[in-house]
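The material for today's practical consists of a large collection of protein records. There is nothing in a record beyond a sequence line and a structure line. Backbone structure tokens are a discrete shorthand for how the chain folds in space. Nothing more is needed to start thinking about how sequence determines fold. As an example, a complete record with its sequence and its structure tokens follows.
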Amino acid sequence: MENPLLLFPQLNISASKDKSYYKVTKSAVMEEPNKASKAGAKQKRNRLSLLLQRSEYHESEHLGKPGNLTKASSVSPEEAVKWGESFDKLLSQKAGLDAFTKFLKTEFSEENIEFWIACEDYKKSKSTHELFPKAKTIYETFIRKDAPKEVNLDFQTKEVTSQNIEQPVITTFDAAQITVYRLMEQDSYPRFLRSDTYLNLVKGRNPGRPTLRRRSRSFTVNDFQGVRPDFTAW
């Protein structure tokens, strides 16, 4: 049998193979970046989705930790109604204090109730040795200028409190605590009683997840000039 190359001299099998290999190689080279690009985009989408899920989880966790916030099932409507009788009754009940704290967090003003709680704890100190470190912590957190959770105090009250820090006693923060108490009582407390958080508890409904609001205008100490604090209440 004669050699096919002799019968078809123009047929170049080697060249055909080279061209085919070139086409396959070129196709593979062009396809590889596309695969890498698609894989990279997919990874980015997965990472973005994961970040969003984590963000939503932490936000909901921050707003609704079961250990810190009041559950609707743990508060009866009758108990919630009593909180509306006076601000003191609200704070005297742990569930009421938790519900009010939850409300203040939606207004980004929880530093007021946190300061009040810190002062209550301070007055329970059993020895003078406990007073100095606690007083320093309270002052650095809530009183000093540009403190991380600075509360709104008039100049005179802040000055007196700052001086008392040098030799702290049980009554060191009384004036500041009463000022903050009055601000919450006359400003935040009425809004709390009108809030969905409180009204749902009174009606026995699940308050659900709170809605964050912009910090509303709080009364300043200048709004209550002339009102002398009643230290006998403490």
In short: The first helix runs from residue 4 to 7. The two ends are 120 Å apart (CA to CA).
